[in-house]
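Example record used in the benchmark description.
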Amino acid sequence: MKLSKPLKVIETENGGLSRAVDRTEARFLDREDVIAPGQNEALLDGGGLSKQREVVFGQPVHHAHVLYGTMLGLRPVPSDVRCGRYTAKERGIAAVEDAPDIDAVALLDGTGEELSLIAINTHPRDAVSVEVAMKGAAARPLRARIVAGPSYMTRNSIGEPEAASLRTIDPPAAGAALELPSHSVTEVVYRMR
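Model output (structure tokens):
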């Protein structure tokens, strides 16, 4: 990999759910100054798989990798995100000022039949309710998945190997708001035809 400028590695105190959100954000928002998920360096320091007493389990960033690893071949389409903003100085994550609650990207498959919406609630404490409107298309929610945990500091352990994990959830009803837990990554797939 050849880089035109030095990379900034996003580090967190615990490598838990906050790292999964940061890494997913970097991947989908194409931030060139951040090491993208999937590169070996991003899996170091507890970011991918952990092993305790011969038991291997995934950390939150591993579950985020699994979520977006199924999106090869999808192409980004224009999206307009309007949301609130927050300021936070939390233990274990970088302080932010006037940051958007939501980062999102819309990805269309090659047939134009399915659109994947990835919505990232970056707020460390508050859940966010999102209204999704698609202009010029009738869309029906098909399926949904989420990477979330009880706190932005959540890190999986042998006692709680799925505290923050990738789960299949019920998609929102057509026209209903999408509820995003704090510091989570949510995917909703819509049928476009």
